[in-house]
Amino acid sequence: QGTIAGICSNRIDALARQEKERFAAARPRTRAALDTGADHFLDGVPMHWMRDWPMPFPMLVAEARGARLTDIDGHVIDDFCLGDTGSMFGHSPEPVAQAIRTQADIGLTYMLPTEAALRAASLLTETFGDFRWQIATTASDANRFALRIARAVTAKAKVIVFHGCYHGAVDDSMVELHQGQTRTRPGLAGQVTDLAGLAIACEFNDLNSVESALQTGEVAAILTEPVMTNSCMVLPEPGFLDGLRALATQYGALLIIDETHTLSSGLGGYTGVHGLDPDIFVVGKCVAGGMPTAVWGLRPAVAKAWRTYDDTRPGGHSGMGTTLSANPMQFACLAATLSQVMTAEAYAHMETGAERLASGLADSIARHGAPWHVVRVGARVEFICAPGPLKNGTEAATAHKPELEAAIHTALLNRGCLIAPFHNMMLVSPVTSNEQIDRLIAAFDDILTELLA
Ligand code: PMP
């Protein structure tokens, strides 16, 4: 028997088996409900990726409050997944819930703005900086539209993305490096175009690879997260993000910073905290407290270039849209979140809690002598079942240990802690308590003890 990440494979198999059985045995109501209702969905789930949770069947949530979920079998779970960032500020923050109740009485969608829209726009500028804003419903949409603008104003075709990135269901970003070449990710369903015609994959933290791509003269934009959060977490090395900014300027490409996850960094996102200077700023998920909303903003110079372009393009569809976007419910929730939820005090609590979590997990790893490490970006913490720090997407892919991680996730859930699926990400909200954090650390430690026994 071999080992994975310093753990005997047979121990991982035993833990996985035991925890799956335990999960299922504790959820008779969930099992019965799924048996009667799930078949109406394609593959039994409302979104196909819900099959990728590691549990033998999905948990059915009865309710969520603060940083806690209750499932229909009555299990109360400390929630560190927080809708994988959609609920990073806690479930149904009261100002947002109140805004929803008020708006619910006066209409849900108009195709016209409101006074709250104007308030939200000025709050966006106050929070994130001098951008000209647009509203979308998902960060995927926001990134797609940002890319259209970048191509329109630069008259160039390609986007640089980083190997191992994720920016949502955005075709252009679904490429990878394979033997040094950009290729379409092989897992894409129903893919008919070669995405290497639209994008160039580079390695994160490698300015030389970015400069080579820019030298083709074909690059409209660099689309990146400031920290790679969608593989095992990779931090930018000193000078990397400044280098991207300088190279983008030098070669006439736009720098699009996708803050959808790194909004965990603090007020104004990673951009605000670290003084980045993107041409286009994108953020979604929790920006309106959990109401489906994303925002994307252009620097005034880019907005001006777009105006010139737009004035001369032939009429007709722009390729940017979606009818239900920029609806009054989104604005009510945006204004409530930006003014009352996404506050310096909230971030201070998140930061302190996340530091407590990260150091607790790191101590446990050190005590057990596991060859693992912990990374943190503000309120976002991840344990990685490999030594660190990781430098790029290739190293992150190697560090990812799906079977081991799946067993740990289910084991954590059976000990009352939910973390984000697919990798080992945990979020600390403004309402997450030290007791919850300590329970997660203890559960993690207990599992490591079992794995290494
Ligand atoms: N950008 C980043 C960095 C993301 O992590 C994600 C989703 N995980 C998205 C964009 C897309 O968000 P959504 O699924 O809400 O469209």
UniProtKB/TrEMBL annotation:
NCBIfam families noted in UniProt: PRK07046.1 (NF005453)
InterPro entries: Aminotrans_3, PyrdxlP-dep_Trfase, PyrdxlP-dep_Trfase_major, PyrdxlP-dep_Trfase_small
GO molecular-function terms, A-Z: pyridoxal phosphate binding; transaminase activity
Keyword annotations from UniProtKB, A to Z: Pyridoxal phosphate
Record family assignment: Belongs to the class-III pyridoxal-phosphate-dependent aminotransferase family.
Protein name, per record: Glutamate-1-semialdehyde 2,1-aminomutase
Organism (species): Ruegeria marina
Ligase listed as a keyword: no
Magnesium is among the record's keywords: no
Names of required cofactors: pyridoxal 5'-phosphate
